[in-house]
Specification:
Subcellular location: Cell membrane
Mean pLDDT: 79
Structural class: alpha/beta
Membrane topology: Multi-pass membrane protein
GO molecular function: potassium:chloride symporter activity
Keywords: Cell membrane, Chloride, Glycoprotein, Ion transport, Membrane, Phosphoprotein, Potassium, Potassium transport, Symport, Transmembrane, Transmembrane helix, Transport
Strand content: 5-15%
Low-confidence stretches: 6-57, 59-64, 78-108, 952-987, 999-1004
Number of helices: 36
Protein name: Solute carrier family 12 member 7
CATH class of one domain: Mainly Alpha
CATH architecture of one domain: Up-down Bundle
Largest sheet: 10 strands, mixed
């Protein structure tokens, strides 16, 4: 390929250029007379922070380099990344402090076979294979056993595919499966599932220890039992007590070994793995040998019932010794004397004793019988079908007789729960991700190969067991019919002891591995800090060994030991593992469907449907195995989830649940855009306008208390505040105000959003909040703010002018408005009203918000015991009695409980008090206007003179221009015509002086005297009359009310009367403790229809 062709082929490639400094290439170069400078790319310890960025080559990026790393340093850190076990780094740092030389960290070198395949193989093949698989095949038959194994292996295979996708989507640090789930589904799910996985691993350790003790006491040293049963009925309880004692001692020994050093456990891991492999090879060798030379393990049957050969040596009722017939030990067990004429058990007398081979071999046709299931109840005889059996009159089985009984009831789902732990252990490779040379390649390959291998072993063992071993021997869990031998050991070659010893060491090793892995998982959870009360378990020895977590693991493992039954412990850990696998599949499916930009796994052989099927299969297996255990496990996970959600540390891990929430929110917002909400769905979506002081603290925190009582966490709540200035100057104040508001929201338990904006003036900032808060259809429909109680004492009118503008803008935007007067006297969330009334003064109907708000308040515990009263005003032409009946019917149809009262307001003459108060109001308003005008003119005069002098200095002959609007106040317009090279001006020095003298006239004593001689406006008199009379009625009826809700009159159309409007509202609410002025949006917000 020539050079031109190579260039053509490279046009579609992604090219990444990394810029290096020329001082890096030529370290001795001196340019432009400047000595050699330190390169910002060199990772040198000689460069201190002060001279880090003194080089010229990247001077343009100096400000960015203060925050962002250079490409070279970033690549250097990535190249030197090591995934150490948590705690090892601290241990190395401690050693470095003691020693003068730093130890070099060895790079991980484990490949797929050693690092993933063999550990998974060791964890999957274990106690269930050796102790329970033959029993499962005998009880459920080959067909149903095949389905049990197939479902479990399919579940783990699908989970391994999902896990491979997650594990190859970046580096998986210490924590393994917990890390994958928590970083994919968030801290709540991660913590809940991580703790469940920890419990599953811990109970798995208990199961392995119980298996070890069962092998020891049943097949190796039965005489070592401490508790011995006096009669056969007490053997089960005695065995459980022995398991508890020996299991506790074994835990102590194993915990001591793990505490002393994990390196000893790792050194023994290869020995334990060799035992597993040799045992499996012995099984296959025994199957091959049985084809031409079956082992001799006869079993004794009475009729079709299997007998336990531990208590007798000869399988016959009597034998001939010489010429004499002598009864056997078996005869004596069923008869009351060794004599031939003794009285014997009825079934014993009616049936013959036969002997058959327990291991007929693979060449026999025993597989035809073992294909089908033989489930039974607890205490049933193990019977061989096809043999004659005459049942006598006996009603119950006598446990003292040497029969082989079933110790527990068997059915498909129960066997499924017992078997599933035998396929767990697929995450052994992902847990060792830090020790792998190429984790993203080794984890998928090694895990899937291990599952394929173990699935082949389990499926072939099911068929081979059913083809080689007699059915009653398969169903004999403890091998009582074959002289107390391990059933699977009877098939092995060269000796049953190969399986017994191999299974003993393999279960012992699996228990040690569980006690080693579970504490590290707990330590990873504790160090993440998502569960506060578990943080103590993140501490350990100096080398990172989790001492406290190991102690917790031992205590929980002891609980499993006290259960003492392997068959009862197995379903418990099945639940926890299945839940963990379910969420691994959920994480993969979620990430795939969301298509997050960071979801780029190297493992490509996955699909979201496979993950969904795996998740569904895990959930189905949970409830099939044990529905009550499944509910308990889900309840534990749910409690942990809610605890982390409310009390745990907040973490942002870029998890899929957050992405799902964003997608769901986007979908919901798009749906909300279809149209306005129906009246039945209307609820106040609040925008709360808060004021902050100079220190950015909230002035009226009771507004948030009232919001919590009104909303109870439902609907939208936006808390808005405005700072005056520019954003660049006020950035720090914005952050501080936002933090203070959010802290207060947390204290008051107000669920919502905070929005702090910066504007050049408060008026525009508030307007921007009202217009632009919210998103799409999720916008506010109600504005809540506090009454400006210092509006009269304020020097500038901005306070009340902004308030009146808010009233006008909410009306124009068709928003509801709530104004809380005396907000600081409103109750806190901790107060409780043990009675009292919420009074509603329904003057005009503007949508029914007055009716809805008291109902919402009464749902909160602060107002729950308050009664609701509704007052309406009748004019002189109204029928008060009929109005009351109609209002009661209306409230009944609204399903609201309230007392109704109609108040009559007669058309009285305007009182002198009203006239005088109106006059005082207008006089005050006029004086404020003149005072404000005088102040403005004084400021204008100073500015005019300064500008005039400045203009004459730099531009002689040019007169300064002033505000054109101010010229309208002049009595005569003065214009000067200048030469073509001059500028046309409208103000002269003489005009400035004339305007100043004119404006001074308004502040003379004569001007003030005219104010006191003025007459009030008749329209204002009528409005004041309404406010005074209505206030008298409201105070008379509702002075002792807990809260008064009142229709808020609208502002005047002419802005010249805004200050009078504030006075009207002040008069209307005088003498009331807590008032909520309501102004509806005009549309109906409450309906009588369902």
């Amino acid at each position: 390929m020539n050079k031109e062709q190579k260039q053509k082929n490279n046009y579609g490639a992604l090219l990444i250029y990394v810029v290096h400094s020329d001082t890096d290439l030529f370290p001795s170069r001196v340019g432009d007379g400047i000595p050699k400078e330190n390169s910002p790319f060199i990772n040198s310890t000689d460069i201190d922070e002060g001279t880090m960025y003194e080089g010229k080559n990247l001077a343009l990026f100096e400000e960015e380099l203060d925050r962002n790393p250079m490409v070279s340093s970033l690549l250097n850190r990535l190249a030197n990344y090591t995934n150490l076990t948590q705690g090892v780094k601290e241990h190395e740092e401690a050693e470095n402090n003691d020693g003068p030389k730093k130890k070099e960290v060895k790079a991980p070198r484990m490949g797929t076979f050693i690092g993933v395949y063999l550990p998974c193989l060791q964890n999957i093949l274990g106690v269930i294979l050796f102790l329970r698989l033959t029993w499962i095949v005998g009880a459920s038959g080959i067909m149903e056993s095949f389905w049990i194994v197939f479902m479990c292996c399919a579940c783990t295979l699908l989970t391994a595919i999902s896990m491979s996708a997650i594990a190859t989507n970046g580096v998986v640090p210490a924590g393994g499966s917990y890390y994958m789930i928590s970083r994919s589904l968030g801290p709540e799910f991660g913590g809940a599932v991580g703790i469940c996985f920890f419990l599953g691993t811990t109970f798995a350790g208990a199961m392995y220890i119980l298996g070890t003790i069962e092998i020891l006491l049943t097949y190796i040293v039965p005489s070592a039992a401490i508790f011995k049963a006096e009669d056969p009925s007490g053997e089960t309880q005695a065995m459980l007590n022995n398991m508890r004692v020996y299991g506790t001692c074994t835990i102590i020994v194993m915990v001591t070994v793990v505490f002393v050093g994990v390196k000893y456990v790792n050194k023994l891991a290869l020995v334990f793995l060799a035992c597993v492999i040799l045992s499996i090879l012995a099984i296959y060798a025994g199957v091959i040998k049985s084809a031409f030379d079956p082992p001799d393990f006869p079993i004794c049957l009475l009729g079709n019932r299997t007998l336990s050969s531990r208590d007798f040596d000869v399988c016959a009722k009597f034998v001939t010794e010489g010429n004499e017939t002598v009864t056997t030990r078996l005869w004596q067990l069923f008869c009351d004397s060794p004599l031939l004429n003794a009285t014997c058990n009825e079934y014993f007398a009616l049936n013959n004793v036969t002997k058959i081979q327990g291991i007929p071999g693979i060449a026999s046709d025993v597989i035809k019988v073992n294909v089908w299931s033989f489930y039974g109840d607890k205490g049933e005889f193990l019977e061989k079908p096809g043999l004659p059996s005459i049942v006598g009159s006996e009603s119950t089985a006598d446990p003292s007789l040497p029969y082989v009984f079933s110790d527990i009831a068997t059915y498909f789902t129960m066997l499924l729960g017992i078997y599933f732990p035998s396929v767990t252990g697929i995450m052994a490779g992902s847990n060792r991700s830090g020790d792998l040379k190429d984790a993203q390649k080794s984890i998928p390959t090694g895990t899937i190969l291990a599952i394929a291998t173990t699935s082949f072993v389990y499926l072939t063992c099911i068929i081979l067991f059913g083809a080689c071993i007699e059915g009653v021997v398969l169903r004999d869990k403890f091998g009582e019919a074959v002289n107390g031998n391990l059933v699977i050991g009877t098939l092995s070659w060269p000796s049953p002891w190969v399986i017994v010893i191999g299974s003993f060491f393999s279960t012992c090793g699996a228990g040690l591995q569980s006690l080693t892995g579970a504490p590290r998982l707990m330590q990873a959870i504790a160090r993440d800090g998502i569960v506060p009360f578990l943080r103590i378990f993140g501490h350990g020895k100096a080398n990172g060994e989790p001492t406290w977590a190991l102690l917790l693991t031992a205590c929980i493992c002891e609980i499993g030991i006290l259960i003492a039954s392997l068959d009862n412990v197995a379903p418990i850990l099945s639940m926890f593992f299945l839940m963990c696998y379910m969420f691994v599949n959920l994480a993969c499916a979620l990430q795939t469907l969301l298509r997050t930009p960071n979801w780029r796994p190297r493992f490509k052989y996955y699909h979201w449907t496979m993950s969904f099927v795996g998740m569904s299969l895990c959930l189905a297996l949970m409830f099939m195995s044990s529905w009550h255990y499944a509910l308990v496990a889900m309840l534990i996970a749910g409690c942990i989830y809610k605890y982390i959600e409310y009390r745990g540390a907040e973490k942002e891990w870029g998890d899929g649940i957050r992405g799902l929430s964003l997608n769901a929110a986007r979908y919901a917002l798009l749906r909300l855009e279809d149209g306005p909400p129906h009246t039945k769905n209307w609820r106040p979506q609040l925008l709360i306008l808060l004021n902050v002081d100079a220190d950015q603290n909230v002035k009226h925190p009771r507004l948030l208390s009232f919001t919590t009582q009104l909303k109870a966490g439902k609907g939208l709540t936006i808390i808005g505040s405005v700072l005056e200035g520019t954003f660049l100057e006020k950035h720090a104040e914005v952050q501080r105000a936002d933090q203070n508001i959010k802290s207060l929201m947390s204290t008051e338990k107000t669920k919502g959003f905070c929005q702090v904006v910066v504007s050049s003036n408060l008026r525009d900032g508030v307007s921007h909040l009202i217009q632009s808060s919210g998103l799409g259809g999720m916008k506010h429909n109600t504005v809540l703010l506090a009454w400006p109680h210092l509006w009269r004492q304020t020097e500038t009118p901005d306070c009340w002018r902004i308030f009146v503008d808010v009233v006008r803008e909410t009306t124009s935007a068709h928003l509801s408005l709530m104004v809380a007067k005396n907000i600081d006297s409103f109750p806190t969330n901790q107060e409780r009203f043990n009675g009292g009334n919420i009074d509603i003064w329904w003057i005009v109907h503007d949508g029914g918000l007055l009716m809805l708000l008291p109902f919402l308040l009464s749902q909160h515990k602060v107002w729950r015991k308050c009664k609701m009263r509704i007052f309406t005003v009748a004019q002189i032409d109204d029928n008060s009695i009929q109005m009351k009946k109609d209002l009661q019917l209306f409230l009944y149809q609204l399903r609201l409980n309230a007392e109704v009262e109609v108040v009559e307001m007669l058309d009285n003459d305007i009182s002198a008090f009203t006239y005088e108060r109106t006059l005082v109001m207008e006089q005050r308003s006029q004086m404020l206007k003149q005072m404000q005008l005088s102040k403005n003119e004084r400021e204008r005069e100073v500015n005019f003179i300064a500008l005039f002098k400045k203009g004459r200095k730099f531009f002689p002959g040019v007169l300064m221009i002033h505000d054109r609007n101010a010229a309208a106040h002049s009595s005569a317009a003065v214009s000067t015509t200048l030469a073509p090279d001059k500028v046309h001006m409208t103000w002269t020095k003489e005009k400035i002086l004339a305007e100043r003298n004119k404006n001074k006239d308004t502040s003379t004593p004569e001007g003030i005297r005219d104010i006191f001689n003025m007459k009030p406006n008749q329209s204002n008199v009528r409005r004041m009359h309404t406010a005074v009379k209505l206030n008298e009625v409201v105070v008379n009826k509702s002075q002792d009310a807990r809260l008064v809700l009142l229709n808020m009159p609208g502002p005047p159309r002419n802005k010249q009367g805004d200050e009078n409007y504030m006075e009207f509202l002040e008069v209307l609410t005088e003498g009331l403790d807590r008032v909520l002025l309501i102004r509806g949006c005009g549309s109906e917000v409450i309906t009588i229809y369902s």
